[in-house]
Amino acid sequence: MTLLTFMAALLAVASLGAAVIALVTRSTVVAVLSAGLVSLFASVMFLLLAAPDVAMTEAAIGSGLTTFLFFFVLGRIRREGTK
Amino acid sequence: MNFTTRKAIPLVLLLLLGSVFYALFAGYTPDETLNRSASYYASQTVQDTGAQNVVTAIIVTYRGLDTLGEVTVLFLTAAIVGLVLAHSKAPKGRSGSGFLPSGELLTTGTRMLVPVILLFGAYVFLNGHLTPGGGFQGGAIVASAMLLMLLSDSAERFSHRLISRIESSAGLTYVILGLLGMLFAGGFLDNRILPLGSFGSILSAGAIPLIYALIGLKVGAEFSSILTSLEATEDSQ
Amino acid sequence: MNLVQISLATGFLLILLGLYGALTNRDILRMIVSFTIADTGVNVVLVAVGYLPGREAPILDTIPVAEAASRITDPVPQALVLTAIVIGLGVTALMLAYAYRLFRARGSLDISEFTELKW
Amino acid sequence: MTDFPNFQWAQVGYALLTLFIVINYGMVMTAVVRKIGARVGGRYGIPVWQNYVDLLKNIALRSKISHGVMYYLGPVFRLTGGVGLLMFVPTIYGSEWHQNFSYAGDLILALYFVFFGTLGMALGAGESGHPHSAIGVSRGLAQVTMAELPLALGVYALSLQYGTLDITKIVAAQQGSIFNWTLFTNPIATVAAMIAFVGTMMRSPFDVAMAPQEIPIGPPTEYHSSYLALMQTNRALFPVAKVVIYMNLFFGGATSWAEFAIKVFCLYMVSVVIGVVHPRFRVEQSIRFFLKWGLPIGVLAILVV
Amino acid sequence: MVSPLLILVAGLGAAFLLGLLRDTSERVAFYVTVAALGFMSFVALSWTVSLALGQVQPVDIYTADARPPFAINLRMGLPEATLASVVALIGLLSAVFMRRDLMRLGRQSMAVLLVLIMALSGLIMTRDLFNLFVFIELIVIASAGLVLLSQDTRALGAGFKYLIVSQVISILLLIGVIFTYHANGSLNIDDIAATPMGFTGASLAMFLVLIALVLELKPFPANGWALDIYESAHPGFSALFSAASGTATLFAVLKLFEASGPDWAPLATGIGLVTFVGANVLALAQDHGRRLLGYSSVGQIGLVLMVVGYGADWGVGLYYVAGGLLISHAIAKAGLFWLSGMVKARQLTDWAALRQNPVLVVAFATFIAMLSGLPPFPAFYAKWTLVHAMAEYADYPLMAIFLIAALIEAAVLFRWFGMAIKREATLPLAYNLSHETVVLIAMTAGWVLSFVWGPLSGFDNLVTVVPFLFALLFLPLDILPARIKNVIAIAGLVVWYVTSTGGLDPLRMIFLTIMVLGGALLLLASFHAKGRRMGFYTPAMLMFAGMALLVTSTTSFQFFAAWEFLTVGSYFLILRGANSEPHALSYITFSLGGAFALLAGFAIAAEGHYTFYLEDLSEVAPELAPYVFVLLAAGFLTKTATMGLHIWLPGAHAEAETDVSPMVSGILLKAGLFGLFVLVMEMGRQELYGVDLTVVLVWLGAISAFIGAVLAAFQEDAKRLLAYSSISQMGYALFGLALMNHLGWLLAMMFAINHFVYKSMLFLAVGGVKERTHTKLMYKMGGLITLMPYSFVSVLVGIIAMSGVPPLSGFGGRWIFYNAIMTTDLRLPMILIFMAGPVGFLYLFRLIHTIFLGQPKDELRKVKEAPFWILLPQMIFVAFLIAFAALPGMILQRVDGYIGTLFGDRPLVWTGRIIDSQYGTWNPVAIWGVIIAVFVTVLLLLVWMNHNAQRVKQFNIVFSAERPFKPQTTHFAWNFFAPYRKAMGFLEMPVSTSFWTGVSNALHGTAEFARKFYTGNGQTYAVQLLLFVIAVYLISMGASS
Fold first, then answer.
1. Which residues of B touch C79 (CB under 8 A)?
2. Rounded to an integer, what distance in angstroms lies between the CA atom of residue C100 and that of residue E317?
3. What sections of the protein cross the membrane (chain A) (predicted)?
4. D16: nearest Cα among D90, D108, D117, D87
5. What are the structural domains of chain C?
6. CA angle E984, E987, E993 (to 5 degrees)
7. Residues of the domain holding B226
């Protein structure tokens, strides 16, 4: 098993684990963060797969912007829901 | 449907779908050499477009129409998110993300960081034809500046109007560049309306840097617009 | 298992996990979260399919043009994934906006409450 | 005059003569039948000339009213039906003069012309406005439609048997021996037809439409004076004309007036005898009777031909 | 030519440009939008025209100066140009339609609209797989945005469901795309066809791509989300969603199925068929207008999908058929959705508001006709071709399922149309000039399309058929007073008759005379109508046009087209009656069902030839011939309302207007008879499983004749009585025809003539009575003889003629009948006919007695004689009946001679005016002579004796002591033949009514039950979607292994 494969396996386990957490957690915030984490692990995996462009994009958009979008909406809903 | 069947049916379905995927997985063998599309790009990109980054060349020229569609997706999303939220103004009062305290530190930090971030974003999309990165990544970085400002509840937010102007002008210019390709070069979105320049320099690869810059601006503006709309709507009108 | 297989498997599993979440979670926001996971899975699959073992990124700054065809990996799927990621974000944003509006309309985020249109 | 082959004015005279004979015969015969009936029942009965008396009385009646055109025309239709029927069938086989106007048509004409008078009568009675007449009409029509069915089947069997619809030819085929009669060559058809015969003679058990004894309904109650006279004439004429058809079709026809008189009387008596020994059916009972007996026999008749 | 790329560029550019405008300048933004859409339409249309005229060749547009597959390319051929035009035009019109809401939401919404149209055009033109995906995503997002145009808050939920489903679809699509790329090394669609699939997973990849695209077409049952959108979205958007999106997506699917090769075609066929059937069955249970339209959209797109799969190897023919269906659907569905925007309330019945504006009713009818595949619209040609192809490949079960589903669809649509015409709306029409203009443009487009499609069909261009045009002429003429139109109509019929009689054999000549000249005669009665009588002449003339064309048709296509014309025309006519809505619906359902049987029959007979001469029916392959016979006979028997297929008739004929009843009874039924004539003339005896089919027909005729008569005798409603009588009379005709001998046919001919005359006469007379008494119930009439003597005379003559009592012409029929049956071996069915005769006498007597005789009702003591114009044709008929009875030879002799040439025999000998057969004689003049002589003599006798008769009034003894609870039950005319009913009532058992009601209830029940499947939960819809994918996967795996 090469180092590359080993890292990939590690990333795979990590991202799948994060995905499972996103599904089973009761807290939406944790779910959103876990999903962002999945994206982040995926973007590292893209680097391994010789796709730096994709890795950048996934990191910036998939794990970054998307997560913030969720939090914005979540925030609005919380504010209005509790009133 | 009770609790168990509500979850069991999707489970069974997805197991079946998984078997479909497994068939794909099991039947998959990586290619030994590049297939004909890829080998064309590998050998012709430099000659055709003068770009170092093949992915960029594909995105901006060969599959430029996709990319035009892609920015249009964001344009649409921005417009629709605006529409969706336009008629549901948030209640008066506190705005901001609601879970991050907007303190003095954040505000000050934001003021300092925003120009740096913007510059970095511009760097990323202008070098898209040479290094990894490009309009989308750069645009996302530019948008993060906007994000920061929103988080810090900064008073000097970008006006929504300005964002929309930038977005539209960039889009329009992009389309016009495409047309110019049709008029002066080999086809729609052909990058050779500008000289290809010397391979590997920043002002090379024809119109690619220009287009990617437009894309970066546009994407940045669109992300910003979406973020602004989602964050609060008092000033979205 | 090599790199490609691991990535492919991860991608597929992410898709399935994401879909499972989207189909079983009643909370609209959690559905959207699940869809982003599935989207990520799709992206992983796309990139993995385009990967040629042992090759380098398709950027010709260090690779001579003449050797490009034998040294770089397939750039096309990468280009596609870029597009897919952006589109995915667009859809996610749209769904979030809808989620907010639905919440405003009903004060709830439970998908099973929005069934007044049926039959 | 190609439409009237071999037409001579004398034919009209002979036709009138036939008519005269048949009417008188009918008058006397019906009276005799009533007399016999009375005697069987232990009563004295009417004199044989009673019908003439009634006729004269009716004609002489002074008060004459009308309810309208159709009322007026009803008896005309009725009598035209009777006379026409007689005119369209040959009475005496072999006698050219008593062929009447049978060249105008064949068996079918006769069968369908039966309805002419019925229709007119019903219409006339209808216009009187008396609901009972309407009830009588509806009952009569309902019953007669089913009663005619075995006849139609029998006739069909018969025409298949003889391969013709021409009455004269049918009679001709039965000449020679009594065993050439349809009665013997095709008894089933004869039985079927006779069921119809009994059913349409307006005698018990199939006389609910007239029902003169119990309830004053039916067309005759609506008419009086010369209307009734016309109808009375027809009541003498029409049964005979009808019997003539049966006689021609099933009983070898008649070659002389004597044979004619005997056969008609015998046939007529069949319905009388049955009537005497059977109580009256309600309409639906008679319909069911015809469906249960007349129809199967008729079907059998055409199947075995 | 400008580059087609400009369609995309203009859309995008304008969308971006809108962002530069000021927020407040909505008006300018709207003009920019309209201008851009106009430009896109112009480009697309100019390409369409130039390509169609052959001025330019189809082009491939390359981007970035690289050849495919290395860069994305687009294609502009005739199909692309046409569909892009459709999309752009619908976009333009919808923009105009949605003006107010677009302005309300601002320029962003207009940008979304522009992007949607742009993306749809791109979807049509692109040849790149991934580009296809991008355009689809654009469409999804833009659609989700435009859903917000609706004021209906529920639209929000619908939009979200749509997004959920789209997410699942795009996941499947992307996986499919990438593995297809891996297999082919190319994303170009054309390469999929060129390159054999490289590895085992590739077919699976192709499956994912195809199924994902198919899912975008909203296949049944994975389509709940789409229905919710249709129901709640803005009608302008629904028009786009159904017409434009459906069209573009379907073309994308077509491209991929073409590329993927014939192995995949059954997938499209199967899913398409299931969708077509399922959507139409479920539509039965809908009473919400827009949701119904949604179901209909789904069904229609399913139909086209089926064609795409089925016609995979047709080449250009596929484009012709699928294109015709697709464009018709686009126009009609867009038009209907736009119309729905003008109807305020949402129930189907609320569409009655359209009646405020007759032009909109015409538009509505046009759209419905386009959708149900009626001539002259393209879907008609498509249906013809499709069924013929199915017959060619001997796919009979497929054909049956398709036709049944098409029938259900027609029933759904016409049920709705009936409601719109007959019900009352709860809210008035939301009138808006620009909305109406948009709708009318769509309607015009429909007609133009038909005009273009006709000549391409290789058959006649049905739009330009003269009688049809003549019928259409009455649409603009409808503003004229009815009398003027009537003159024109009569003149037209007479002229057509005079000019088209040449070269017809006597048989057709007689049918033409009855249908056209008879029609002109009956139209005399229409002079009675006052005012404008909107909407009468077009359908009437359409019906006559159909009949005129039917008789002169030589090919099966002409015949069928004519048949559909007359069916539709008569449907509209029948629908005009006061209470005719349900009856008109059952009429059109049965008629179209019959028509489809004809279509199937012709198609099977043609064995792949699309033009088939009727005379070639005699040369159908022997193993097919019996089935052809059965199908054609079933079609014709539906029209002649043979027992079992008759339940539509009584209501339809009885509830029709006074002058319409004789047309649909006296004339229209003859169309079926004519068809049967052609059938038995060309095909002769056929045997199926050893049963001689003509014997079956004999039995059917006899049963109809008998049961029809019995049922007629039990009716309380005079017109219903006549209607049942028609069933009986047609039974006689069928019986004669099926005897397959000379006299039998002559009998049928005789009945055709006679039935026309006396049934027209009786319907007119009863109709005239109804005009005056305002009731059709016989027990409410009575004693009208003195008040309406002329009507009485015509009824009297009519019933004498009909019952076959000498001397009138009915007797001739009976005489021929007896002679005909003498020569046949069939004896048992005769019994029924024998029974029918006297029963017929019963109902006829009831008719005359209860209406004209007995005591007049108090409230009817002052009624007047029927109007002159209604009496006039009756009197002409009376004269004709008498003349025909005395001189039957003037018509019959020629027919007899003609039939003689067919059979090569001469059973009747015509000596002067005497007719001799092998068995007997019919001397009509002598009969007349004798009867008149006797009658006059007796009458004179009576007059002599009774000249001083005194007129007395009737006296009323109907009620004795008290007024009963239901007074009519004590009336003699109520249940007139009560004893008969007691004895024969079992024959009244509504066997066929129960049967058909059962069928209908079962269908409705299924629909009602099955639609619960659409729970409204977006998640459930997504689950169903996946379920569908898996099911299709497993089925196709099973099918291919």
1. 55, 58-59, 63, 66
2. 49
3. 29-52, 59-77
4. D87
5. 3-113 (1.10.287.3510)
6. 150
7. 49-231
Distance from CA of D6 to the nearest CA of E (A): 12
Give a yes or no: residue E744 inside a domain: yes
Of E98, E127, E156, the one marking the end of a domain is E127
What are the angstrom distances between the C-alpha of E868 and each of A3, D178, E614, E762, E871?
Answer: 106, 62, 43, 15, 5
CA distances from E341 to D19, E267, E289, E335, E358 (A): 82, 36, 11, 10, 17
Q: What is the CA radius of gyration of chain A?
A: 15
Compute the CA torsion angle E4, E10, E15, E19 (nearest 10 deg): 150
Find residue E188's DSSP bridge partners.
E128
E980 inside domain: no
Nearest to E934 by CA among D144, D18, D53: D18
Number of domains comprising chain B? 1
Is residue D169 classed as helix, strand or coil in its secondary structure? helix
Domains contained in chain E, number = 2
Distance CA(E816)–CA(C22), nearest Å, equals 79
User: Does residue E214 lie within any of the structural domains?
Assistant: no
C-beta separation of D97 from D157 below 8 A: no
Element (H, E) at E950: strand E950-951
Find residues 30-89 of chain D whose CB sits inside 8 Å of chain E: 59, 63-70, 72-73, 75-77, 79-80, 83-84, 87-88
The domain of E48 spans 1-127
H-only helix segments in E343-458 = 358-371, 378-392, 396-422, 433-456
Q: Count of A–C CB contacts within 8 Å?
A: 148
- Using CA atoms, how far apart are residues E155 and C102, in angstroms rounded to an integer? 10
Asked whether residue B126 is domain-assigned, the answer is yes
Coil, helix or strand for B127? Answer: coil
CA angle E606/E610/E616 to nearest 5° reads: 40
Confirm if E864 and E759 have CB atoms less than 8 A apart. no
Residues 6+ apart with CB under 8 A from E537: E471, E474, E477, E478, E482, E485, E486, E489
Q: Is B131's CB within 8 Å of C61's CB?
A: yes
Partners for B (CB, 8 Å, 3+ pairs)? A, C, E
**Is there a domain that residue E1030 lies in?**
no
| Helix E718-738 vs helix E809-822: crossing angle, to nearest 10 | 40
Distance in angstroms (rounded) separating the CA atoms of residues E885 and E750: 11
Chain B / chain C CB contacts < 8 angstroms:
146
Chain D contact set for E841 (CB, 8 A):
115, 119, 141, 145
Q: Look at residues E58, E93, E127 and tell me which one is the last residue of a structural domain.
A: E127
Domain ranges for chain D, please list them: 9-304
Under 8 Å between Cβ of E354 and E364: yes
Contacts of B223 in chain A (CB under 8 A): 65
Of all residues in chain A, the one with the smallest CA distance to B128 is A53
Cα B228 to its chain centre, rounded Å, is: 16
Measured between alpha carbons, how far is A62 from A66 in angstroms, rounded to an integer? 6
What is the value of ipTM here, to two decimals? 0.86
Cα E711 from Cα E990, distance rounded (Å): 10
| pLDDT of chain D, 305 residues: tens digit per residue | 466 666 777 788 888 888 999 999 999 998 988 888 888 888 888 888 888 998 888 888 877 778 788 888 888 888 998 898 888 888 888 877 777 788 788 888 888 888 888 888 788 877 777 767 777 778 888 888 888 888 888 888 888 888 888 888 888 889 888 888 988 888 999 999 999 888 888 777 887 776 544 444 456 667 778 888 888 888 888 889 989 999 999 998 888 889 999 999 999 988 888 887 888 888 888 888 888 888 899 888 888 87
Cα–Cα distance, D205 to E17 (Å, whole number): 101
**B196 located within any domain:** yes
Q: Contact E271/E181 with Cβ under 8 angstroms?
A: no
